[in-house]
Design goal:
Keywords: ATP-binding, Biotin, Ligase, Magnesium, Metal-binding, Nucleotide-binding
Bound molecules: adenosine-5'-diphosphate
Helix content: 25-40%
Strand order of the largest sheet: 13-12-9-10-11-14-21-19
Oligomer: single chain
GO molecular function, one term: metal ion binding
Distance between the termini: 50 Å
Shape: globular
Mean pLDDT: 97
Largest sheet: 8 strands, antiparallel
Structural class: alpha+beta
Pfam families: Biotin_carb_C (PF02785), Biotin_carb_N (PF00289), CPSase_L_D2 (PF02786)
Radius of gyration: 21 Å
Protein name: Biotin carboxylase of acetyl-CoA carboxylase
């Protein structure tokens, strides 16, 4: 039985995990860098240990140090959160070798899904529809060009090891193909230490729609429905909602079935997310699987009533899933906005610094997952996410009004934030109509900023 969990992360997600631990009567151990000494995750955990200097490479990515703290504090499990070491096979293996429990899937599942090319071929075998494209690219330029013509322009070059919206390159015509490929490879080598690049059809006006999966170690896999994540900037999500205003009940059922098949094909365990692109004719294609807790998991919690972090811990404890598929229902509508310390009018540059004043929204149907407070200094070393604002209401229209009200109440001074930008999104006609795709922000950037 897990009695003590070390949370190998920082910021809002570390606070989020510590909260579920406390409610389960499980002790929590925080780790922190010098820049996070006074962070809320340090205050809320039962114990806290210093990892090292601020840069991630010397703190939140230091596997040796994290494992030695886990041993010293007698933690029996490690929760990786998202980002940092959450999809690092070496980390998962080292935890197991140390005789500890990794709160996540097997190292094999992480490896299989962590490499986009490997995941594509596995999914194809499992009968999951993947985005039309190539496996490994051939050597000769002419062969590569021929493949691109078969797929049809525009095509997208993708780093197999890419992630976080990085390592993608759009190619509109044949004359750009080979030069773009050379650049994509060298960028992939620098950014991910792996120059493998493949080619995919570039889908026009797609939706990014993903399914939350929960699986236990006894062969049960369920889905917790979808999240519509098409409000993106630079391939990164800004606003997410569930249910998706775009998909039909038939499409939802078909996508859910494939999401479950994807998870089963890698003997998945714990919480995971199967991402799809859906084109304007409502054809859907597997994009990738994220083998960890997702930033946007709270909207799913809100409509299903399931605490995903608690469910992860129970699965790691070898307990069978508590819910069967027909007991899981989507009730009402939830929207999440990612609140960042950034300057929307100045190219969305990060705006770290001292929080002089903060008033977080409260009231019916409002949840904020954050980690800062008045007097806290948002470090410049990490992602500038301040909090996630999640609202719920019985209908989509009511949820949008509630989000607008909550954003109106949200006051932060000291750092620049994207609060007014998100407020503009809530008022933009395509969003209000539920008629938007992944190009929505780019297409309306002048009105939104
Ligand atoms: P990452 O792993 O970096 O997050 P993904 O493969 O999940 O990358 O893609 C992120 C986003 O990029 C998608 O949500 C979508 O907006 C865009 N995208 C990726 N592949 C395609 C494609 N083949 N066609 C059109 N858009 C794409």
């Amino acid at each position: 039985m897990i009695k003590k969990v070390l949370v190998a992360n920082r910021g809002e997600i570390a606070v989020r995990i510590v909260r579920s631990c406390r409610e389960m009567g499980i002790r929590s151990v925080a780790v922190y860098s010098d820049a996070d000494r006074t962070s809320m995750h340090v205050r809320y955990a039962d114990e806290a240990y210093r990892l090292g200097p601020a840069p991630s490479s010397e703190s939140y990515l230091n596997i040796d140090k994290i494992i030695s703290i886990a041993k010293k504090s007698k933690a029996d499990a490690i929760h990786p959160g998202y980002g940092f070491l959450s999809e690092n096979t070496d980390f998962a293996n080292r935890i197991l070798q140390a005789g500890l429990i990794f709160i996540g899937p097997s190292a094999e599942a992480i490896t299989a899904m962590g490499d986009k090319m490997t995941a594509r071929s596995l999914m194809k075998k499992a009968g999951v529809t993947i985005v039309p494209g190539t496996d490994e690219l051939p050597e000769a330029d002419e062969d590569i060009k021929k493949l691109a013509r078969e797929i049809g322009y525009p095509v997208m070059l993708k780093a197999s090891a890419g992630g976080g919206g990085k390592g993608m390159r759009l190619v509109k015509s044949e004359e750009d193909l080979i030069p773009s490929l050379l650049r994509a490879k060298s960028e992939a080598r620098t950014a991910f230490g792996n120059e493998a690049v493949y080619m995919e059809k570039y889908l026009l006006e797609p939706h990014h729609i993903e399914f939350q999966i929960m699986a236990d170690n006894h062969g049960h896999v369920v889905h917790l429905f979808e999240r519509e994540c098409s409000v993106q900037r630079r391939h990164q999500k800004v606003v997410e909602e569930t249910p998706s205003p775009f998909i039909t009940p038939e499409l939802r059922a078909a996508m859910a079935e494939q999401a479950i098949a994807a998870a089963k094909s890698v003997n998945y365990s714990g919480a995971g997310t199967v991402e799809f692109l859906v084109d304007k004719d409502r054809n859907f294609y597997f994009l990738e699987m994220n083998t960890r807790l997702q930033v946007e998991h709270p909207i799913t919690e809100r409509v299903t009533g399931i605490d995903i972090v608690k469910a992860q811990i129970k699965v790691a404890n070898n307990e069978p899933l508590e819910m069967s598929q027909n007991e899981i229902i989507q009730r009402g509508h939830a929207i999440e906005a990612r609140i960042y310390a950034e300057d929307p009018v100045n190219n969305f540059n990060p705006s770290p610094g001292l929080i002089r004043h903060i008033t977080e929204p409260l009231g019916l149907g409002v949840r904020t997952d954050g980690y800062v407070y008045e007097g806290f200094e948002i470090p410049m070393y990490y992602d500038p996410l301040i909090s996630k604002l999640i609202v719920w209401a019985p209908t989509r229209a009511d949820a949008i009004e509630r989000m607008k009200r909550a954003l109106y109440e949200y006051k932060i001074t000291g750092v620049k934030t994207n609060i007014s930008f998100v407020q503009s999104i809530m008022q933009a006609q395509p969003f209000v109509d539920g008629n938007y795709n992944t190009h929505f922000i780019d297409d309306h950037i002048d009105e939104l900023t």
